[in-house]
Amino acid sequence: MCPPEHFGVLYEINPWMHREVLVDADRAREQWANLKATLEQAGAEIEVLEAAPDQPDIVFTANAGIVNGRQFVPSRFMHPEREGEVPFDVAWFEQHGFTVDRLPDHVHHEGAGDALPFGNVLLSGYRFRSDAASHAYLSRLTGAAVRSVELADERLYHLDLTFCPLDGRRAIVAPDGWDRYGRRVVEALVPELLVLDGDDALAFCANSVVVGSNVIMPSCPPTVGRQLEAWGFDVAVCDVSEFLKAGGACRCLTLALDVTLGPQGAR
Ligand code: ARG
User: Fold this and answer.
1) By CB distance 3.0 to 4.6 Å, which of 141, 196, 259, 263 could disulfide with 174?
2) How far apart are the CA of 220 and the centre of ligand 1, in A?
3) Range of the domain at 42
4) How far is the CA of 16 from the centre of ligand 1 (A)?
5) What is the distance between the alpha carbons of residues 251 and 216, in angstroms, rounded to a whole number?
């Protein structure tokens, strides 16, 4: 995670961002600290990346890149506004003993914001922030089997706004965010789906962090909470309203470091 020291809505690169909306810096700091404490209570160990001046969105560490064991593949951002984050992300991973492997510079991919492992597959979204062409390179670099899903709603511009793996069998999903073929890909991959309706998807309910049997969510409608509890999960809600102003929520504010992708051909 990266603290919101220089966070703000300073440009507009997704439909949620409006420069005239002010971020309350103190509230942002409190909400971030509360999210961090909640994740720690759930059993997570948090590494902190120092905030960088002039990089308001670096708080959204999900977009730093792809982690695979001790390998790190930094993002190639779609918008130049975020490209300045990359050297800071790369420096952190190098200092922590990761091997850094880069995508070719003509393709875009926004890291764990657009790619989440499920079983032995890396499910990756494309269209608004990542190119479909990046998936083959990602697969070549990491050795993972990548399955592509085309995103269909500009407001759900990253895969992690539409897909939240819970365990080996289940995921929270917002199929409104995918095209018809993408829905079929996910249905074939995930045995049990918790389907969000349109409003819950737009409240970023899928942008949740799973730590063991704990699900940390930006909001949780009763029907969703009941299903999660019936499956044995404990739900914690963390208010991240200041970050919603930039189009991000709980999961965007984190990057899982304990990820090892399944090899190609594994079943
Ligand atoms: N303002 C950021 C952007 O538009 C928000 C990033 C949200 N991150 C995510 N993983 N969904 O790039």
Assistant:
1) 196
2) 20
3) 25-253
4) 10
5) 8
